[in-house]
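Friendly challenge for the regulars: who can give me the structure tokens for this chain first? No prize, just bragging rights.
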Amino acid sequence: MECATCSAGLDHCHGTLVLHFEAPPECTEPGCTDLGRARHLLIIDCRSVSGGCVCTETHLVSA
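First reply, four minutes later:
Bragging rights claimed.
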């Protein structure tokens, strides 16, 4: 089975883009250097990262 986006020849990344409050975004795919949202099908907030994220400890979110 092949990724439909790969089959179509479209530029994309198979990693997850993690958006941070106080740092640049990062990707879980080793070697990914283009951190544009359009290239990533999966985008999460750093609060969703298993084990948490350092920037969520310093950034207070109002309830």
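Helices lie at 4-7, 54-58. Residues 7 and 55 are 37 Å apart (CA to CA). Your move, everyone else.
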